[in-house]
Amino acid sequence: MSEKGLLFTKDHEWVRVQGNIAVVGITDYAQDELGDVVFVDLPSEGDQVQEGEGFAVVESVKAVSDIYAPVSGTIVKVNTELEDSPELINESPYEKGWIAEIELAEGVQLDDLMTAEEYEAFIKEA
Amino acid sequence: MKKTPLTELHRQQGAKMIDFHGFEMPVQYTSVIDEHLTVRRAVGIFDLCHMGEFDLEGPGAVATLSQLTTNDPSGLQPGEIQYTMLTNPNGGIIDDILVYRTETGFFLVVNASNTEKDFNWINQHLLPDTTLRDRTSELALIAVQGPKSLPVVERVLGKPLADVETYTFIDTEYKGYWLRASRTGYTGEDGFELYLPNAGAEELWQDLMTTGAEEGIAPIGLGARDTLRLEMRMPLYGNDIDETTTPLEAGLGRFVKFDKGDFIGRAALVKQKEAGVQRRLVGFVLQERGVPRQGYPILSAEGEEIGIVTSGTHSPSLNQAIGTGYVAAESASPGTEIHILVRQKRLKAQIIKGRFLK
Fold this sequence. Notes:
Number of domains of chain A: 1
CATH topology of the largest domain in chain B: Gyrase A, domain 2
Mean pLDDT of chain B: 97
Low-confidence stretches of chain B: none
Shape of chain A: globular
Number of helices of chain A: 4
Structural class of chain B: alpha+beta
CATH superfamily of the largest domain in chain B: Probable tRNA modification gtpase trme, domain 1
Distance between the termini of chain B: 38 Å
Mean pLDDT of chain A: 94
CATH class of the largest domain in chain B: Alpha Beta
Strand order of the largest sheet of chain B: 10-11-12-9-3-13
Number of strands of chain A: 9
Shape of chain B: globular
Oligomer: heterodimer
Radius of gyration of chain B: 21 Å
Strand content of chain B: 25-35%
Distance between the termini of chain A: 22 Å
Order of helices and strands of chain A: EEEHEEEEEHHEH
CATH architecture of chain A: Beta Barrel
Largest interface: A-B, 13 and 18 residues
CATH class of chain A: Mainly Beta
Largest sheet of chain B: 6 strands, mixed
Radius of gyration of chain A: 13 Å
Number of helices of chain B: 8
CATH architecture of the largest domain in chain B: 2-Layer Sandwich
Strand order of the largest sheet of chain A: 1-2-3-9-8-5
């Protein structure tokens, strides 16, 4: 599993930070809770997002779920593969199922995000 | 939360459990899409122990039922089943139910969410020499649905069942338990609904799973139950129909027998029929990406609000977003383009005729 090095939110998003770019997706736990994903409402490149703000929507057969930005910044890339293959979120939540890349805003802190170990402990409590 | 005789079994087998009208029920075992397709292609079993069952008996049973429901129960022969509705004086639907004609009266099967309400309503309207008994807490219900249902149920019950026609039932035995097997369901596929005392439920469930292994049987959760029924345009109480909607608006007029004599709601329904309904329940397919959900506004192609979505999902069989909703009668014709407002975006949809899955 490729969860190592990722950071996590309490809303079950993950972030992989590479330089000033954060790749964002939803966790394995989140995709399992949602069930079969059938549609992803993607943001647009160039959108400004604020930490904690809904920036994408994932719809499964049975539920609709807002995806919140784990960090503030600008959307620089979206995973257009999800338009035709939303099931990638179920099949490969940490790799092929990534949702968007966010260019970090100035001075963004990552201190509030959880490590893989912290996140694992967090979902066990839930 | 209330449990069914099978709740622990679902949990042990790793089903995702939810609170469904106060019952702890399985919503999904593996995947809604996989479970759905298993029922369309092979066979699946459902825990429906939460459904309500009543016995209505005595010399006044036929007249009691006839004055409470829209369909005509008087011609039913023992062994026959009828879909019907309880309506209020305004013609609004109190519940949609199944009525089984027995040798001594009727066996009524009602929606879990309405069990108490229906019991009180019927009880208030009993004619002389009529008794109503709530059997919900003593009876289990397991549905077996899918094109391969028949051989599985035949082997489990040890008797031929091909002659049990759609919307009929037989009473038989299973391992010493009384069992009622009806050729009914909520999926649009062939299948049976099996009623028996709670004590036999787990044994029957395990037996069906083992016996049906060669047919590829699988347990099915409430998630797929909803997508299966919606593809067939079967209404869901609480979503598509309720006390504020009438059978005529919901497209269920064929189950309303105006010429059978008076019943509660008849006068209001006659009036509505004469005046013409103001809104109709329609089915639509989305022509853009997205998923319609209950409560989303329906707009005309010109952008005027004309109705509301009552059910919506992604159809696993068609791989397409589908839904139902009430729209103004003048905009309800098949082929009409409508728009569904999904998160401030207007998505194109088209009204279709009949079932989604032909």
